[in-house]
Amino acid sequence: MSSRSFSLALLCGVLAAVIWGSTYVVTTELLPPDRPLLASLLRALPAGLLLVLWQRQLPQGHWWWRAAVLGTLNIGLFFYCLFVAAYHLPGGVAALVMSCQPVLVMLLSVFLLHEPLRARPMVAAGIASCGVALLVSVQQASLSVIGIVAGLCAAMSMALGIVLSKRWPKPASISLVTFTGWQLLAGGLLLLPITLWQEGLPAQVSLRNLAGYGYLCLIGAVLAYLLWFRALQRLPAVTLSFLTFTSPVSALVFGYVVLNQMLTLQQAVGALAILAAIKLAQRPPAPVISPVAGVAGRDPLFTPFNKGKL
How many CB atoms are located within 10 Å of the residue 101 CB? Predict the structure, then answer.
């Protein structure tokens, strides 16, 4: 992969994570309280229908059940747990609980992709964990067990979705828009009967609520997942997973800018540690000149996936 393509893939992943970081502000400020299933449904199902109707291409063969599994992990289960966490925890805490996802991706990659644990991402994960500890330790809010468990489940769901997406790469015959639409639609259809059974439909919806749902659907789902799945096609699973550390940092920034939440020096140091960890995990090593072949070698982290290396 060229340096330019690698940088563009990183940019797509970062932008998606930043958008997801804004989810917590939108949830608390624009959506009705105690309706995580409805928020999940209206984020996924309309977005999936829009993309599938636009492309008009359905799965074939084993991609029916693969799309259902990926849609459940990446969209349906993940959205539900995400919104439960957002309703029960402050935005920064909810995002930070989910920041264990890169570690889960590394462990799952060992078993499902037969990839070894590598020193660079492990060191980066340790640095990021220190940054997370600095950020969480200054939060002046009670922590909900339900919210923490939901955040951990969301992290596990998406981590498994990332790894399985690398194990089952997108068929060359379908577009990225179609692939994204399948998963959003599958996740939305999973949430539909559960939402109607557990929450039902609200008696009234304000313009403020509609604005929030519209943002989550068009920006938080359609745009963010197109960017995310584009990055997923081009980056190794572990490399991509570290970009999710951008989400808690952006959540804190959005909270500071939009909600006037306090941002202390300790939080700033924690955020810088997280950004440094992301940089460490993503930075390709300098090319090494082979004394035998006389050509530049590459770190296994950045060899193509079909060679069986991260």
Answer: 24
| pLDDT mean over 268-293 | 69
Q: How many domains does the chain have?
A: 1
CA distance linking residue 93 with residue 173, whole number of Å:
41
Q: How far apart are CA 48 and CA 217, in angstroms?
A: 9
Q: What pLDDT band is residue 295 in, cutting at 50, 70 and 90?
A: very low
Cα 303 to Cα 59, 113, 234, 265, 272, distances in angstroms:
30, 14, 11, 39, 29
For residue 296, give its domain range: 3-307
> Residue written as tokens 């029960």?
88
Task: Round the average pLDDT of the chain to a whole number and report it.
Answer: 83
Q: Residue 208 corresponds to which tokens in the numbers above?
A: 């403020």
